[in-house]
């Protein structure tokens, strides 16, 4: 690598072309660059649905009165439940244990009688499957809601005052139907960018070290800036193309709203790609071995980006030391920006914070890579 | 035969633990995931902030706000004074849920009508917001029932919810049994997937072929170490789950190991298939990754299988992890006996048979 040769656009383009061939010619790069993103996007979009749409629920009605029958009919008619009627408690317990239902309701023999007697409260027994905590919360909530609207209707029909005098009316902002897909699909773009940026780059560059072609490259009059740019640009273009593809799939296939500006999305994606490409290059330069590079990229980039970024798991719920660690993870800011751009459009306060942290992490990783490259080459 | 096989098994095990990069792959995930996942990977809602806008001057709303402020569910409260401020608190994600008590709240209550409270959950985080809403709902409801009782009109009916198998809906009780399955997956796949690829990379594969071992025996020699590693890792996680994280274990240890063995067999078939398909250890590693991410995502670990579209539920059925997770969780939390394991064990056996045949076929093709 000569320090005196002038910069040359032709040389840079030639290097970029070489890099692009390298991506296309290796089957494992093809898998990472093209197959994995598409597969992941569809799995995240269709496979990770936290909203229990139609829960299987059991019902045991031991009361033969009209009130119990009316409540059972409400459950049967609800779009939230797939109702399975049982003949005994033992049957319900068996279904719940086997996972055939996620919860059940029992109407005791005196349900109607206690309901009619003034001054008494008839219990409505609800049991959920706690081995699936998230589903259990939903089942409990849905059944409570079904009971509430039934009780209200009953009071209204009989011209009685409402059973429970306070009612909560919920209006979900940004996502009126409260679909988990609307935050998971935008977040998955960050995961895919991590795979392209860190995993793919670390592999391809480490391969050059492994095969000794890096030394050959160094003996040419390539300048450091040209060298780094040639390693960054092709992957950057790949990342942006992949992001646009994800955007199209998110909006047209998954019906996720995109309310922000495309220019901002490009800006944030570029910054995030900057830091993950930097990390990928850094890992490959440090390890100089494909295997170790891939492994460390997975542990340093992919795992934090899925677990510690707020992609699925709520950061606020983590214990304080883990929460503190999430501030160091670039994916956290990118996911926050993605969720804002897709669902809210523009929230200056959040986007500014994300912008600053993403600039800092991109500068840090790219700067460190440049530094490491000079030490090893000059 | 066993005398011939044993040295091969010992050699494979030594190799797996001698090479620094495989050793790291076998030890790091166990430590990292055991320490991190139970704390970080949770869908529970803790430390949430509740924004409250109280426009009512009456005693009832003051009491309600005090009750909301006293709960553990929302350790942070944000008292806002107007609509704009409430809107900003949600927009800027300073609060997960906003509650708006309108000015006629006390008046409506006093008049015997139903008073309304408007809840504004942040839909950008719809899952957490829904859970936060259900916390708020139960507090408001509890207060309302008390009011009705005090007025001499107890509600005619009420819902009593109990959670079986995990009364407090502790997310760790869900996470750790699932981790047994996931960590076993990594270990078993890595050892088998690396094995043939390593021999090929280092040129020792031909030497193995000229040895008096049949392809079937060579394959067994590659699978047994993987099974041992998987069983060992699973044991570590089970011990940590029971003694460190205090997850109840209601089932039988023997049944757990029986299912574990079937699961590890299914995985080692997949590992051998990957290993025979690729040229280098690095490609084998990527192959494992490409298989594992969808396998974990579609297993019911992150989101329930029953919420997926039918086509993906079919894919999930073929995924050995989805059956094994049900078994491990069942043995841990529900005390599954053989009868309850069987509906998930026979698909696992079937999958094991299929992957091992596939692995053997691919392995034979590689030799030829």
Layout of helices and strands:
The complex is a heterodimer of chains A (378) and B (368).
Chain A: H1 9-25, H2 27-47, E1 55-61, H3 66-77, E2 81-85, H4 89-98, E3 103-107, H5 111-116, E4 122-129, H6 133-157, E5 166-170, H7 181-211, H8 213-218, H9 224-253, H10 262-287, H11 290-307, H12 320-326, H13 330-344, H14 348-377
Parallel strand pairs in A: 1-2, 1-3
Antiparallel strand pairs in A: 3-4
Helix pairs in contact in A: 1-2, 1-9, 2-7, 2-9, 3-6, 7-9, 7-10, 7-11, 7-13, 9-10, 10-11, 10-13, 10-14, 13-14
Chain B: H1 2-18, H2 20-40, E1 49-54, H3 59-70, E2 76-80, H4 83-91, E3 97-101, H5 105-110, E4 115-121, H6 126-150, E5 157-164, H7 171-202, H8 205-210, H9 215-244, H10 253-277, H11 281-297, H12 310-318, H13 320-334, H14 338-367
Parallel strand pairs in B: 1-2, 1-3
Antiparallel strand pairs in B: 3-4
Helix pairs in contact in B: 1-9, 2-7, 7-9, 7-10, 7-11, 7-13, 9-10, 10-11, 10-13, 10-14, 13-14
Query: How many H/I helical runs of chain B?
Result: 14
Biggest sheet of chain B, in brief? 4 strands, mixed
- What is the first-to-last residue Cα distance of chain A? 7 Å
Parts with pLDDT < 50 across at least 5 consecutive residues of chain A: none
Strand order of the largest sheet of chain B: 2-1-3-4
Portion in beta strands of chain A = 5-15%
| Helix/strand order of chain A | HHEHEHEHEHEHHHHHHHH
Count every beta strand of chain A, where a strand is a DSSP E run of 2 or more residues.
5
Spans of at least 5 consecutive residues with low confidence of chain B: none
Helix content of chain A: 55-70%
Instruction: Give the biggest beta sheet of chain A.
Output: 4 strands, mixed
- Overall shape of chain B: it is elongated
Structure in a nutshell:
The complex is a heterodimer of chains A (378) and B (368). Chain A is an alpha/beta fold.
Describe this structure as you would to a colleague.
The complex is a heterodimer of chains A (378) and B (368). Chain A is an alpha/beta fold and 378 residues long. Chain A folds into two domains: 9-48 and 179-377, no CATH class; 55-157, abc type-2 transporter like fold (3-Layer(aba) Sandwich). Helix content of chain A is 67%, strand content 8%. Chain A is built from 14 helices and five strands. Chain A has a four-stranded mixed beta sheet, with helices on both faces. In chain A, strand 1 (55-61), helix 3 (66-77) and strand 2 (81-85) form a beta-alpha-beta unit. In chain A, helix 2 runs antiparallel to helix 7, helix 2 (27-47) runs parallel beside helix 9 (224-253) and helix 10 (262-287) runs parallel beside helix 14. The model of chain A has no long low-confidence stretch (mean pLDDT 88). Chain B has two domains: 2-42 and 169-367, no CATH class; 49-150, abc type-2 transporter like domain (abc type-2 transporter like fold). Chain B is 69% helix and 8% strand. Chain B has helices at 2-18, 20-40, 59-70, 83-91, 105-110, 126-150, 171-202, 205-210, 215-244, 253-277, 281-297, 310-318, 320-334, 338-367, and strands at 49-54, 76-80, 97-101, 115-121, 157-164. The model of chain B has no long low-confidence stretch (mean pLDDT 90). The chains are: A alpha/beta (378), B alpha/beta (368). At the A-B interface, helix 2, helix 4, helix 5, strand 4 and helix 6 of A face helix 2, strand 4, helix 6, strand 5 and helix 7 of B. Strand 4 of chain A pairs parallel with strand 5 (157-164) of chain B.
């Amino acid at each position: 690598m000569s320090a005196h040769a002038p910069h040359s656009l032709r040389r840079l383009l030639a290097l970029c072309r070489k890099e692009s061939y390298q991506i296309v010619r290796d089957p494992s790069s093809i898998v990472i660059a093209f197959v994995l993103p598409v597969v992941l996007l569809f799995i995240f979009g269709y496979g990770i649905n936290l909203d229990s749409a139609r829960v299987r629920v059991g019902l045991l009605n031991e009361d033969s009165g009209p009130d119990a029958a009316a409540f059972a009919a409400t459950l049967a008619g609800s779009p939230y439940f797939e109702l399975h009627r049982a003949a005994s408690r033992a049957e319900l317990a068996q279904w719940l244990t086997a996972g055939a239902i996620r919860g059940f309701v029992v109407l005791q023999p005196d349900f109607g009688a206690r309901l009619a007697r003034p001054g008494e409260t008839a219990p409505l027994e609800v049991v959920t499957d706690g081995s699936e905590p998230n589903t259990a919360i939903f089942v409990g909530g849905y059944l409570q809601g079904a009971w509430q609207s039934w009780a209200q209707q009953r009071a209204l029909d009989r011209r009685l005052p409402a059973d429970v005098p306070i009612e909560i009316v919920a209006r979900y902002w940004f996502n009126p139907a409260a679909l988990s897909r609307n935050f998971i699909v935008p977040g998955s773009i960050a995961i895919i960018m991590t795979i392209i940026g860190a995993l793919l780059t670390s592999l391809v560059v480490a391969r050059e070290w492994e095969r000794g072609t890096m030394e050959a490259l160094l003996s040419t009059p390539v300048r450091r800036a040209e060298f780094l740019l040639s390693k960054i640009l092709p992957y950057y273009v790949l990342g942006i193309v992949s992001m646009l593809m994800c955007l199209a799939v998110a909006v047209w296939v998954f019906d996720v709203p995109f309310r922000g500006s495309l220019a901002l999305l490009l800006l944030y994606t570029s910054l995030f790609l900057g830091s993950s490409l930097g990390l990928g290059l850094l890992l490959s330069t440090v390890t100089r071995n494909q295997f170790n590079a891939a492994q460390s990229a997975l542990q340093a980039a992919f795992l934090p980006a899925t677990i510690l970024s707020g992609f699925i798991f709520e950061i606020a719920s983590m214990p304080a030391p883990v929460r503190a660690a999430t501030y160091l993870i670039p994916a956290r800011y990118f996911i926050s920006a993605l969720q804002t751009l897709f669902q809210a459009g523009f929230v200056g306060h959040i986007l500014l914070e994300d912008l600053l942290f993403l600039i800092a992490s991109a500068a840090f990783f790219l700067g460190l890579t440049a530094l490491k490259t000079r030490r090893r080459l000059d | 035969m066993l005398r011939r096989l044993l040295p091969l098994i010992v050699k494979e095990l030594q190799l797996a633990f001698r090479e620094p990069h495989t050793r790291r792959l076998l030890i790091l995930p166990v430590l990292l995931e055991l320490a991190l996942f139970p704390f970080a990977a949770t869908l529970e809602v803790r430390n949430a902030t509740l924004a409250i806008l109280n426009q009512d001057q009456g005693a009832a709303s003051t009491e309600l706000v005090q009750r909301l402020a006293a709960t553990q569910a929302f350790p942070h409260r944000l008292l806002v004074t107007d609509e704009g401020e409430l809107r900003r608190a949600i927009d800027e994600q300073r609060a997960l849920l906003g509650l708006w008590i309108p000015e006629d709240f006390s008046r409506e209550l006093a008049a015997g009508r139903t008073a309304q409270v408007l809840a504004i959950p942040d839909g950008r985080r719809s899952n957490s917001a829904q859970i936060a809403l259900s916390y708020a709902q139960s507090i408001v409801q509890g207060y309302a029932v008390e009011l009705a009782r005090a007025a001499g009109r107890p509600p005619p009916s009420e819902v009593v919810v109990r959670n079986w198998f995990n009364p407090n809906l502790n997310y760790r009780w869900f996470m750790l049994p699932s981790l047994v399955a996931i960590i076993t997956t990594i270990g078993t796949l890595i050892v088998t997937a690396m094995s043939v690829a390593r021999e090929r990379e280092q040129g020792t594969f031909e030497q193995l072929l000229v040895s008096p071992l049949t392809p079937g025996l060579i394959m067994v020699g590659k699978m047994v170490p993987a099974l041992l590693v998987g069983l060992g890792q699973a044991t570590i996680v089970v011990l940590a789950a029971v003694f460190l994280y205090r997850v109840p274990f209601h089932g039988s240890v023997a049944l757990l190991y029986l299912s574990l063995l079937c699961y590890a067999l299914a995985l080692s078939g997949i590992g051998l298939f990957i290993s025979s398909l690729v040229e280098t250890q690095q490609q084998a590693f990527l192959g494992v990754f490409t298989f594992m991410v969808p396998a974990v995502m579609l297993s019911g670990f992150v989101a329930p299988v029953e919420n997926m579209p039918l086509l993906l539920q079919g894919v999930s059925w073929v995924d050995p992890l989805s059956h094994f997770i049900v078994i491990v969780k069942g043995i841990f939390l529900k005390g599954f006996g053989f009868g309850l394991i069987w509906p998930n064990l026979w698909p696992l056996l079937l999958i094991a048979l299929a992957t091992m045949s596939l692995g053997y076929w691919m392995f034979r093709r590689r030799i030829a």
